[in-house]
Amino acid sequence: MNETNNTSGFYRLSWLQRIGFGSGDLAQNLIFQTVACYLMLYLTTVLKINPAFVSGLILSVRLLDCFWSPVVGRYIDNRNPKLGKYRTYLLYGGIPLTVAACLLMLPQAATWSMGMKLVYATVSYTVLSMIYSVVNIPYGSIMASMTRDNDEVLILTSTRMVCANIGQIVVQAGFPIGLAMVVHTAIDWNQATFMAIGTIPAFIILPSLPMLKKWFGKKGLYYLLLSVGFVGFAILFTIGKFFDVAACNTIVQTAKVMTGVGLLVGSLMWALVPEVITEAEYRTGNRPAATVNALAGVAFKAGFSIAGWITPLVMGMIGFNLASEQSALPTDPIAWFTVTCIFAIVGFVLLLFCFMGSKENITTTPEKPVSYGEMFAEFKANKCLQLVLSIFVVVFLASFISAPVNAYYTKLANYSDIAQNAILWFTCIIPAILLIVVGFLIYKYPLTDERLDEINKEIEARKA
Question: Where are the domains positioned within the chain?
């Protein structure tokens, strides 16, 4: 399909452009999923840092990011570089991001004093997080600058999320496999499968989004996915509480797939971000793509940071100390460094492909710089944005609160009763409750496809 422009702003894109755009999310997920799923385990089981410190570090860095992301979004919205308003940062930010990712798990750090380890963990994680925002915020803005066509945005979102989930499954399954290969130990295939199999539904559901949306409607589709996920978490809890997990492997893996169906709603939320940007343009005349994406990024990272903060903290409080318990993964520092570097370098190559494949068709630069006051005035005035940000926080909290503990679920019988209950709470009960909250927030979201079409046509009529 070639790009056409039958109505101003309503561009149709080629598959090369769609896949080129999606490769950017694949690239970022090779780094982000490494941090989300394995950084906490690295700091506690390889460097032997106290989980309470790790908990505080993750929370502090993400609180810092709540201030940093709006700074990045404001800077990008107020400028128009020659290589592209948003895509420029994939290139100029991708280089330091790759370097920072490689420096995140230096093997020499394992031999340092505890004080040096704490300084190293704080500096390396903070720098990586700040650089990641410089790439992630403009990348999210590219989608809103490629087309106004709602169907095309849905295709872009599904393509992006398929690529993102490829990155997720590569890291979640590939990291423990890679560690085992580097240290020459047997690969625990049940563990690797359980870590990644929840991503499988993305490859079936996301390409079918236009059809599924037509059948069930936008909200109906969300409710269906959330219901399947809730049942999956209930099955995992029942097996973990009353049966032998190892003996029920087929049912366990099936239930994990079902939970992935429910958590897939987090991926679909990105399709609502361009809707919010369009609604803001309708009210204000400006199209604050980077600003809205920065706020969405803050909400996304808030869910991630709360999960990263509360998991090691609560587990330590109830007696399940990740730093002193038997590790579910190999602890060789060279292995962790090697696997992380491979993901980071491959990610940079994919960012270059995204830079070349993403064409910006709709970009605006305000006549006067967007102030921080105006940014948060937009947040206050935009009820749709408030709801979307709330959904982001809750759904990604549900996704990431179990991520570091998933490696322990398949080995549940190896731990004490206290530890088993903690693992079940974080892998089953809390995510199931959060899915119910997500369903309620989606119920409150007001923008229908019909209303969006009206808004887009009126915006184009004003320009004409």
Answer: 15-463
Closest CA to 185 of 332, 33, 385, 43: 332
Closest CA to 40 of 302, 308, 301: 308
The candidate with the shortest Cα–Cα distance to 139, out of 153, 159, 160, 124, is 160
Buried b / exposed e along 93-103 (16+ C-beta atoms within 10 A): bbeebbebbbb
**Dist CA 387 CA 395 (whole Å):** 12
Whole-angstrom distance, CA of residue 455 vs CA of residue 449: 10
Predicted pLDDT at 345: 95
| Beta strand spans in 127-235 (E) | none
Q: What band does 25 get if pLDDT is binned at 50, 70 and 90?
A: very high
Count other Cβ atoms within 10 Å, centred on residue 25.
28
Average pLDDT, stretch 316-345? Answer: 81
Q: Using pLDDT thresholds of 50, 70 and 90, give the confidence band for residue 338.
A: very high
Residue 367: what pLDDT?
A: 57
HSE-up of residue 420 (Cα within 13 Å, Cβ side)? 18
Residue 463 · residue 8 · CB < 8 Å: yes
3 state DSSP class of 49:
coil
Closest CA to 153 of 394, 456, 387: 456
Q: Is the dihedral of CA 88, 91, 97, 101 positive or negative?
A: positive
What's phi and psi for 415, nearest 5 deg?
Answer: -115, 165
Residues 28-41: tens digit of each pLDDT: 999 988 988 889 88
pLDDT at 414 over 70: yes
Nearest Cα to Cα of residue 260 among 213, 200, 174: 200
Q: Is the model's pLDDT at 366 over the cut of 60?
A: no
Q: Measure the CA angle with vertex 63, ends 58 and 65; round to 5°.
A: 95
Neighbours of 447 (CB within 10 A): 18
What is the rounded distance in angstroms from the CA atom of residue 314 to the CA atom of residue 464? 58
Q: Dihedral through CA 128, CA 33, CA 230, CA 218, nearest 10?
A: 80
pLDDT, one tens digit per residue, over 271-328 is: 788 888 888 888 877 777 767 767 777 787 778 778 877 777 777 666 666 666 667 7
Phi, psi of 10 (to 5 degrees): -95, 70
Query: In terms of Cα–Cα distance, which of 261, 241, 159 is closest to 201?
Result: 261
Residue 57 sits at the vertex; the CA angle it makes with 53 and 59, to the nearest 5 degrees, is 120
Which of 96, 86, 82 lies closest to 348 in space, CA to CA?
96
**pLDDT > 70: percent of the chain:** 91
pLDDT tens, 66-88?
788 878 887 887 778 888 888 88
The span from the CA of 347 to the CA of 290, in Å, is 22
